[in-house]
Amino acid sequence: MNTLRQAVQEYLSLRRSLGFKLQDAGKGLLDFVTFMERHRTSYITQALALAWAQQPVNVQPAQWAKRLSFVRGFAHHRSATDSRTQIPAQGLLPFRPRRARPYLYSDDEIRGLLHAALDMPCLSKLRPWTYHCLFGLLSVSGLRLGEARSLELQDLDLKAAVLTIRSSKFGKCRLVPLHASTCKVLADYIARRKRHWAGREVSSYLFVSNWGNRLDGGEIHRTFYVLSRQIGLRGISDHHGPRLHDMRQHAGSRIMPTLYRIRLWRGSGCVLTRHNQRPSRKANSLSSGRYRVGLTPSGSVRESAFSFNCMSAWRYTFVVSVDSCPSHSAITEQSTPW
Predict the structure, then answer these.
(1) Which pLDDT score, from 0 to 100, does residue 107 have?
(2) Which domain holds residue 262?
(3) Same domain, 281 and 233
(4) Degrees (nearest 5) of the Cα angle 102, 107, 109?
């Protein structure tokens, strides 16, 4: 019979082969195995699982419940080969995390953040432009921070005005159209990046640190916190406030200020009805069966009505694209310039 450590490695390999990333769970389960080895126990017991889950005493109870869920999932897997395994009951630590309330940025707040990024005092002349471009792209594209960090130069096609997002959530890839003004800002940043790193080794990532590597996620958040306090988004001593992830909501609320309810009729395409509702959690796409709502650059479809601008240099466009609808190929909304 395999040891617990071997079983954890097999469990993680199996789940990851199915598309699960298990970053937190992977670290947690390896720590749990170390805990079990210190207690010289070769099989999972509910008491030890509960003791391990509650080890960090200075965290929220929801974190305890999350840690116990890691063990519960592994215990279900382990019980198939070790009958001594005790699966922690569902009623233990019944705490659930509170979902953070999304913050909708105003255009003035986004502009203030971008101006503050350019005014950052630092030795590297490229760093202010890196954060200016990164925060601007997040605010108009709806990209996740991890997706923006992982962008490489080869993922940008500025002539076609398209970003290629690789290995996104659930291991999927997608294309994100860009407006011409966004392409202009990106082209300017790439030119500055090229001049700054001329004759020196640098990674292929679009947004790089002072050492030429991919930007660190923690450093991005720390920089954002400093800038957000400077412009008044957060108080000096605030531990909570607007987040970078909320820029997905900002992009969604500006791209889709009034969502439409798509009513699908069999054999007759689709009918659009105006329906006021809160911004969707999905900033890049909405789904209704086999019909998709996504983003497109203006002018790429036959009909355009109006578009929405966020700031002078960044602009985005919304399209409702019906893949399989025989009579309605695309419906687009465009905005007027600032």
Answers:
(1) 86
(2) 254-333
(3) no
(4) 70
